[in-house]
Amino acid sequence: MHVFSLPKVHTHSFLVLTFLIVMATGLGAQTPNVARAQDVLKQSDQLVTFMDSDFTAQYQFVQDVPGEGKVYKTAIIFRRDRENKYLIVMKLPEVDKGKGYLKVDNNLWFYDPESRRATFTSARDRFQNLNARNSDFTRSNLGGDYQVTKVTPEKLGRFDCWVLDLESTTDEVTFPRMKVWLSSADSLVRQTKDYSLSGQHLRTTAIPQYQKVGSRYIPTNIIIVDILKGKNIAGSFVSEKTQITISQPSLVDLPQNTFTQAYLEKLNG
Amino acid sequence: MIFWLAGRNLNRQKRRYVLLVLAAIFGFAIVTIAQALVAGLAKNLNDGGSRYYGGHILVHGRSNTNNLDLVKDEALIRTAIAQSGIDQIRAIVRRTHVYDTGFLFFNGERRPLRRIIGLDWSAASPVLNDLSYLAGGPQNVFSKTGILVSSQTAKNLDLRLGDDVILQAPMVAGPINTINLVVAGIFRDASIFSAYTVYMDRSALNELIRLPEEDYNNLGIYLEETRDIRANTLKISQALSLSGLKTFDYGKDRNHYMNQLSQVWDGWRYAVLSVEDHLYQLRSLFEAIELVTWFFLALMFGIITIGVLNTYRIIVRERVKEIGTMRALGMKRQRISNLFLIEAFLLSSIGIVGGTLLGFLGLLLVQNIDLSHLSGFDIFLYRGKLSWNIYFETWLFDALLVSSSIVLGAWLPSRYARNIIPCEALRAE
Question: Is the pLDDT of residue B347 over 50?
């Protein structure tokens, strides 16, 4: 299928990436101040954003519900970051096959192939009742949506990180407060913690590994831990979590009609 | 004298009348029970719906510049309500609500909520006290941190009184917020109105969703008597309009209001809707049930009329000599006719009194039957049981109807009796 062919690589993208990494590495020597950290956050966004091409990949979800077992789901995700669009098409399980999420600007529709109808849904809702949210699949815009209020250095496993305390500057986000761990070596997000406005810790997301796609990066694995949902097992609280594995990434340009309901209908025959 | 004669005749003919009296008593009792139960079901539906929607009558404020639902002119609205001439107002309560987007967390479990309702506890206590509590209650809510949950929610989350829970809801602006609350009461209600509803302090909910302290979504009016709810809603709507506030037209149901939202206006505009306007589909159901009840009533009284007609025709034939004697002794034709009609009236009175007593007895028995296990039916119940309401006007109408049908049944035979010629009657074998 054309969407999984080898990515196109542009020379200027290499230059941008090299510049970003050099900047990030240069900053590694000392903890940046808040204003500088805001710039680093924006650079971090650019590392995982595909403004000059479309992006396609297969996402496999494994949700671990303590005491109940695992839930497996697979979806294909199409992104056109420059137009703020995405299309998610469920592949597995069979019962969800063909269901789709279409995001165009700030509007998100859920398409049900059985009724052949698309209904408005919220980006803040949980995706397929997993621990991910619909907003997790849009392009990263932490630098635009949040303001850095505090920066502290911290070691996260093998990564030297800066921990950025963020407060939202827009009402479009799901979580009004976040903490982001950026590895000082490459400015990639290694972990986030999401909070409610009152400061309740709601979710932790870990991104231990990235894969390079063209001149950019996308996570190889994402682990989302729901802090409030889980079960007491053998005397200790075990959180519900979802592991996302991203494979078959592609930067091939997609047909213009990909981000339409008609395309979703066509996929469902 | 004629009443005494009629009473004596009734007593003497009691064996013949017994079936007729029993039919009248039974028929009136059935009608009384049916109408009282329908009235009770309707009241329970209205009361349950009023807790869900925020009042028997609701004043909604709407601005179409920001699509917000807020009430901004409370002083004017309260004055208009006072001037509307509606009495028997039980409480007027400010309410903030969050629909369909809230979640309650406890011990790793998550429960989606249909409605998070924020009320001023003191103003709403008459309404919340109507709920049946398995544990705690509004009296346990001493601060902004209390929350009342349904037994269904408590069961799903394994909640007990005093447990700390986390309530999550989107703020007015959109992003998520949470608040820590303590379970102050668990009410017994598995109906769609309350199973997924929680009640909390309004200012705490405002804080959660970042709505200014003084703001709220609607002003709920709770009534003692809910029978004329739509007429009273119209009165308040007209009073608001007269007081100079911009209002929406009051129509046949909630959709009439919804259709007007596409209009353009400046500032705040108010809609007055009753719980029956929200539950208009169920209102149609009740109207159908009432129609069936009236049909049943008409059928039953039709049968009684025919029964009385036949019985009196026999009675008049059997008492033809007695009638001839009374006529020979100088009793006028009209008095003969009246004698039979008064007999029939006394008969109907016995039927009405007996039927009312039997109806009461039946209702007292029915009201103790626990029907809480009937899922889907609990919106019509009061604390899991049937309840009833007898309206004097309805009872009086039924009584007049039964009297009229019995007297009507006796009218033709009484006409025959008055025309009997004494000498022929005395010669008759």
Answer: yes
Those residues with Cβ within 8 angstroms of residue A82's Cβ, 6 or more apart along the chain or in another chain: A50, A51, A52
Predicted confidence at residue B210, as pLDDT, reads 93
For A177, left (φ over 0), alpha (ψ -120 to 50), or beta? beta
Q: Do A228 and B105 touch (CB under 8 A)?
A: yes
Q: Which residue has tokens 């279409």?
A: A102
Chain B contact set for A171 (CB, 8 A)? 171, 173-175
Interhelix angle B74-83/B229-242, rounded to 10 degrees, is 120
Pairing of strands B268-274, B57-63: antiparallel
Q: Do B336 and B327 touch, CB atoms closer than 8 A?
A: yes
B45, B307 contact by CB (below 8 A): no
Report phi then psi at B103, rounded to 5: -140, 145
Average pLDDT, chain B: 86
Tell me the percentage of chain B whose pLDDT exceeds 70: 97
Q: Count Cβ neighbours within 10 Å for each residue of B273-303 and write b for 16 or more, e otherwise.
A: bbbbbbbeebbeebeeeeeebeeebeebbee
Tell me, yes or no, if B241 comes closer than 8 A to chain A by beta carbon: no
Asked if B25 is an interface residue toward chain A (Cβ–Cβ < 8 A), one would say: no
Q: What is the pLDDT of residue B118?
A: 92
Average pLDDT of span A207-223: 92
* Paired tokens of B114: 């249909």
CA A55 to chain CA centroid, Å, is 13
Min Cα–Cα distance to chain A from B205, Å: 13
Q: What is the structure's pLDDT at B212?
A: 92
The amino acid that residue A26 corresponds to is G
Shortest CA distance from B103: residue in chain A: A228
Taking the model in full, what pTM does it have? 0.77
Assess contact for A7 and A52: CB atoms under 8 A.
Answer: no
Q: How far apart are CA B54 and CA B283, in angstroms?
A: 18
Q: Give the phi and the psi of residue B83 in degrees, each rounded to 5.
A: -85, -10
Cross-chain residue pair A174–B177, CB shorter than 8 Å: no
Of the candidates A20, A27, A26, A23, the residue with the CA atom closest to the CA atom of residue A47: A20
pLDDT in tens, B280-312: 877 778 788 888 888 888 888 888 888 888 888
User: Is A106 a residue whose pLDDT tops 90?
Assistant: no
More confident residue, B66 or B61: B61
Give the residue-averaged pLDDT of B74-82. 91
pLDDT the model gives residue A12: 54
| Whether the bond into A176 is cis, omega within 30 of 0 | no
